[in-house]
Amino acid sequence: MLVPASSSKSAPRGGSRPADPEELVRRAREFHRTGKATTVAGKHLKAAALLRRGLALLDHHSVDDVTRIEVRTRLLVTLSWCLAETSHVDDGLALLSGAREDLALFHDFPERDELLSLLDGNRAVLLFRVGRLEEGITYIDSDVDHHERRLAEGVGDVAAVVKSLVVALTNRGNAYGELHRITQATRDLNRVVDLSTEHRIPISAAIATHALGNVQQRAGDLPAALRSYEDANRAYQELEPGMLLRLRIDQAEAMISVGLVDEAGRHLDEVLPELRKQRVGQDIAEAELFRAAAALLDGELPMAKRMANSAQRKLIRRGSPAWAAVAGLIVLRVDVLRALDTARPSARVVDRALELAERLSAQKLRDQAAVAQALAVRVEVRRGNLDRAAELLRNVPGTRRTSPIDRRMLLRLCRAELALATGNRRAALAQAKAGLAELGRLRDQMGGLELVSGTALHGRELGELAVRLVLDGTGSAVDAKRLFTWLERTRAQMYRYEPVASTVDAELVDSIAEVRQLSRALLRARLDGNPTARLEARYATSQRDAMRLGWSASPWGKARPVADIKEVSAELGDRAMISFASSGDAMVAVVIAGGRVRMVRLGSAAEATEAALKLHADLNALAPDYLPAPLAEVISISARRQADRLDRQLLQPLAEFVGDRELVIVPTGPLYVVPWGVLALCKSRPTIVVPSATAWLATSQAGVDSAGGVLLVRGPGLQAAEGEIGKLAGYHVDATALGGEAARVGTVLEALDGVTLAHIAAHGEHEPENALFSRLELADGALFAHEVGRVRRPPRQVVLAACELALNRIRPGDEALGFAGAMLASGAHTVIAASSRVGDEPAAAAMGDYHRGLASGASPAVALADAIAIDPLRRPFVCLGSG
User: What one-character-per-residue DSSP string does 24-91 give?
Assistant: First the structure.
């Protein structure tokens, strides 16, 4: 029996000085109370030291046997948890077994049944922590039954019975959730919430809400899970901050499920150092495991393997074979991806996958076992062993309603790859289509643009397979139409949604206000030359808190159907559409013009990317107003060289098809940074940039709101804009101007609602790491993309006379997210914005020319083309949306 102190009645060290047994017991109970609170706060080593001091007090011969066994059992129960968390679960289980043996020696005292129940409940929890769920449930059932009987009898301390019962029900609910027994889990956890509310135990209600989030995640209801996590987060911050680290791990798992892997990675990078300080073994291992999963999906294979191996070693040491096997699955996935890049993968990879599948099945991890089997299928297909691959695929279990989306997409990908390898292109494309439809149903549930855009990650490989398959065709008009359709199914899906009205949570408003205040404080600190590290950390945390509140909102909108090519062609009329795409290193364009559809191959995607990024860097360098003339000339020559490279590669091969038509361009990847008016073919040519043909068609066909008016806003610190707003007002009879102190965030948001045209001249900044916090600086701080994206009636046209706010963060699936993108996704028809930095003076001059064109009756696309043509390199604006 492993115990930290002897149970004999020998006198304590230091002599036989008389001791008051009541005082010894009181102090031992106090050590237990403090130790328990300390371990709840996650400080297990400190808690263990306190509990051992309590046990030592009970060794004194003056303490009577019944009191000793009662208090000692409670101390050992809590200590067992500390040992299991900081060393090996068997250490904790052994401690509980020893306590049970000691308790068996005492048959007739009032608290015996209660203590036996306590031992059963805690043994169950330790078993749950290492994935021995079925075994643990047999013990937790005993604990629940005992306390249900006590509550029904209504004798003794009812409050204490309720507290014990809610703990047992919470633990059993968690275990049922892990086993995907959703009904039983929800039943237990809802009962906890009811009991905790009735008996005023708010922390228990918070823990149950957290557990409900885990169950909802297992059930595939990710928006509900995120809402539950946010509710628990609020409660923990007030009641028990020590619980927040565990919550962060579960939130990260949910982020990975919806494709927000970079956010999950940053989230866990903050959590892991704190966990390591506290030496919480299981939580460290789980956090490393999910960090590995995020890195895997983000293509960071070395980090994924390193983290997964580290987690696996810890879990093996802890006696957690189920979790260790899950970590091993991530290691396998890395090795399979590398093997698939070789000419003929080793048969050993297949053997490893099948061996791991057996181990996962033995742990009753059905979905994970199916993933290992599916990986074996992919490798056999790559090896050319198609009969063996087909046999293995038949043995892969079908998906369930609660199966994770990545597992469902992987099974679709296996079927598609096998069909393609056997020459059945139609079946391969059918699997890709069905998989993307499944992914679309998940996307339809999401609230917030981040979640809607993030889900595309899980369909990336299916979409790439379909596009690659079409590109392998002859390049005929039929192939061109098929490629167009697949591009529309796979790219910029967040713009397919017609936003629905939603109530903005007051807490979200307060959270964004906090971000704004920190943004101003950070700016002041930088200007004053003060240290900023602490403010930057608070600012980043505040941004993430606000973003998570937005995730738990109601669904973003109603999905529109994918654009039909005939409908697009009819809407284009005399215009032409160029939809760019890349597959591997191949750049290609689908051109729709004059009722015809063509596919044109355009050479190396890497070369186009290099030229686009160099052009963007040159234009940024050219932006300052008072650049020395020789330097400006050198930069201009470089910029023109890159623009000519892009024009020759991407547009000149299409010139014969588009003629002198106005253009609608759908970029891909790095081409989003290109200000197309700089390229020769587009000079003075009205050109609209859109995220997808589906998005363009929706805005082009949208009705006109009955509201009207023009809003002109001038932010602080723009000398060239001092007279600009007054000048622009002269072009519009119904203009309202807001400048100086009047241009405050709340006033501007209210004024944006329902106007026909909104022009905002203000300093702006694109946030590449948190695109929806790209911002415009107003009199009282930053106006964020997150806020403008929820204006109830967005302006029909928005002009952003600021730096680089046409930029987007490009997620997998060409999901473009940024300030201008948020405006378009929320319902604005046209957005004029710069795709790189722009000086105050050229911006003011370009906007004067632009509004003059609007006043003369020109469309936004025509007016902007004329304004840009005067000085293309210093006026890198683009027309986004319907034009």
Answer: HHHHHHHHHHHHHHHHHTT-HHHHHHHHHHHHHHTTSTTS-HHHHHHHHHHHHHHHHHHHHHHS-HHH
pLDDT digits (tens, 9 = 90+) for 202-241: 999 999 999 999 998 888 787 788 889 888 988 998 888 8
SS3 788: helix
How is residue 561 annotated by DSSP?
A: P
* Residues comprising the chain, all counted: 883
Distance of alpha carbon 152 from its chain centroid, rounded? 45
Nearest-Å Rg of the Cα atoms of the chain is: 32
Question: Among 13-22, 527-536, 647-656, which stretch is predicted with the lowest mean pLDDT?
Answer: 13-22
DSSP state of 723: T
Give per-residue pLDDT as tens, 287-317.
999 999 999 988 899 999 999 999 999 988 8
- pLDDT grade for 138, boundaries at 50, 70 and 90: very high
Angle between helices 133-153 and 112-129 (to 10 degrees): 150
- Whether residue 290 contacts residue 257, with contact meaning beta carbons closer than 8 Å, is answered with no
At residue 494, the pLDDT reads 65
Nearest by Cα to 365 from 415, 324, 416, 317 = 324
SS3 346: coil
Residue with tokens 């005929």: 476
Please answer whether residues 682 and 663 qualify as being in contact, where contact means their C-beta atoms are separated by less than 8 angstroms: yes
Q: Is pLDDT larger for residue 156 or for residue 340?
A: 340
Region 856-871: mean pLDDT is 94
For residue 173, how far is the Cα from the chain centroid? 26
Dihedral sign computed on CA atoms, order 333, 334, 338, 339: negative
Q: What is the pLDDT of residue 577?
A: 96
Check: CB of residue 217 under 8 Å from CB of residue 250. Answer: yes
Number of H helices, E strands in the chain: 36, 18
Phi and psi angles of residue 799, each rounded to the nearest 5 degrees, phi first? -110, 120
Contact 225/216 with Cβ under 8 angstroms? yes
Query: Residue 284 is encoded by which pair of tokens?
Result: 């460290």
Whether the CB-CB separation of 447 and 552 falls below 8 Å is answered with: yes
Per the structure block, which two tokens stand in for 273?
């150092």
Which position has the token pair 């290099």?
A: 610
Structure confidence by residue, pLDDT tens digits, 789-830? 667 788 889 998 866 555 555 555 555 656 777 778 777 889
Cβ atoms of 86 and 281 within 8 Å: the answer is yes
Is 537 exposed, middle or buried (CB count within 10 Å of its CB: 0-12, 13-18, 19+)?
exposed
Q: What is the pLDDT of residue 13?
A: 36
Task: Give the pairing of strands 764-765 and 877-881.
Answer: unpaired
Confidence at residue 686, expressed as pLDDT on a 0 to 100 scale? 96
- For 711, counting Cβ atoms within 10 Å of its Cβ (0-12 exposed, 13-18 middle, 19+ buried), the class is buried
366: pLDDT confidence band, cut at 50, 70 and 90? confident
The Cα 829–Cα 816 span in angstroms is 16
Instruction: Write the CA distances from 709 to 70, 344, 797, 858, integer angstroms.
Output: 77, 65, 11, 18
Tokens of 222: 């990710």
How far is residue 164's CA from residue 167's CA, in Å, rounded to a whole number?
5
pLDDT in tens, 404-425: 888 888 999 999 999 999 999 9
Q: Using CA atoms, how far apart are residues 788 and 775, in angstroms rounded to an integer? A: 10
- Tell me the percentage of the chain whose pLDDT exceeds 90: 43
H helix intervals, 585-660: 605-622, 629-646, 655-658
Contact 432, 462 (CB under 8 A): yes
In SS3 terms, 208-268 reads as: HHHHHHHHHHHCCCHHHHHHHHHHHHHHHHHHCHHHHHHHHHHHHHHHHHCCCHHHHHHHH
Residue 237 CA from chain centroid, whole number: 22
Residues 258/452, Cβ–Cβ less than 8 Å: no
Question: Rounded to an integer, what is the distance from CA 509 to the centroid of its chain?
Answer: 21
Cα→Cα distances 317→45, 87, 195, 666, 780, Å: 18, 8, 38, 53, 55
